[in-house]
Amino acid sequence: MTLPPLRRVLPSVLGVVLATTGLQALTLAVPAAACACGAAAPVVDDPDGAVSIGTEHAIVSADGGTEQIDMRLALDTLANDAGLVFPTPAPATVSLGDLDLFTAIKTQTEPRVVFVADSTGGGPRSGAQDGAAPPVVLDEVQLGPLHATTLAASDAQGLADWLDVNGYGLAPQVLDLLESYVQRDWYFVALQMTAEGSLDGELDPIRFRFDRPADGLVYPLALSQAAAVPQQVNLYVFDDHRADVAFVDRGPVDRSLGGTPLWAGPVDHPDLVGLGAYLTTYSLDFYDPATQVLGDLAFPRAANDDEVIPVVYRTRAQQPADLSQTEEGTPGSSSGTPLGWILLYVGLVTAVVTTVAVVVLRQRRALRSSGAPAPRS
């Protein structure tokens, strides 16, 4: 398929990730290092290999029985190659996301204004320690400089070994988190991308599509428990009704973490109506991911579809024409010109006349003192 030209492409995600900038400056190669979501890891033999996520944006929607996640990350790193491990409840297909959707959401959710008065080109390498079952490669796709591999894993150690052989630098605490996904029969997308320059900054989105879970939309976040820096997750949830945000089997996300909607209402933007009838947005801030991230996110239907539309109050500047419409009993001129304007005009004229008179008087005094005849008025 023909890929749209991108200045930057991203392999990103919820926990720890590595991705890349400028698509045209990128060269495909197995990254010297990579990360698993939620746990940034230094690149082996690369002093600039540390990667952390600054801000994460994700559009969560459904198309029939298929869930779709468009994700965009902002990275903080000096590294020029990276990777990402993204768990999904069913095998995922991966493609480039649509940056225009994020722009449309920004327009849709604007406040209401109220006026008052790999270089080798090869695929991933297999490998696992003795006794550990390696994951099964279900699918591979090449998207310009991005190489995505969909994996089925029955053994967390075998998955970790595969990731290690393929250049993903996993922190030790990530292994236990991967184990929880393996036990739930989830799948994984491993992303690899390399850039000639640093991956630092905001990257273009990537799209994941997989069978929608029977319990509803889900957003994998558990791996972010291994993150060493605060995590900000901005979610845009499309569904038929307003959606709450909760940790799976752990209850609602606390209000102090951003568990109340920033915006909620019916969708009317033409570029967004196909994603769902109702949009609910959240901005979650986890200052201590290890204790505040309690697992993956779910989006149960809210008790009602009440709208949450921020309002900005502004004062409309009055024009002179508006001032001519005086209320009954308010002093004004009979010609329709406000009294204030008349007084201002009279004041200006008086000031000019007074100034001229003072100048003339001073000239006459100067002439008298010099003995010259004073000019006639």
Layout of strands and helices, then pairs:
Elements: E1 51-63, E2 66-77, E3 81-88, E4 93-96, H1 99-108, E5 112-116, E6 136-143, E7 146-152, H2 156-165, H3 172-183, E8 187-194, E9 201-202, E10 206-211, E11 218-219, E12 231-239, E13 246-247, E14 251-252, E15 263-266, E16 278-286, H4 289-292, E17 297-298, E18 311-315, H5 320-323, H6 339-370
Parallel strand pairs: 1-12, 5-18
Antiparallel strand pairs: 1-2, 2-9, 2-10, 3-8, 4-10, 6-7, 7-8, 11-17, 12-16, 13-14, 13-17, 15-16
Q: What does it look like?
A:
It is a single chain. The chain has 377 residues and is an alpha+beta fold. It is built from 6 helices and 18 strands. The protein has helices at residues 99-108, 156-165, 172-183, 289-292, 320-323, 339-370, and strands at residues 51-63, 66-77, 81-88, 93-96, 112-116, 136-143, 146-152, 187-194, 201-202, 206-211, 218-219, 231-239, 246-247, 251-252, 263-266, 278-286, 297-298, 311-315. The longest helix is centred in the last third of the chain and has 32 residues, at 339-370. It is elongated. The model is unreliable at 1-47 and 320-346 (pLDDT under 50).
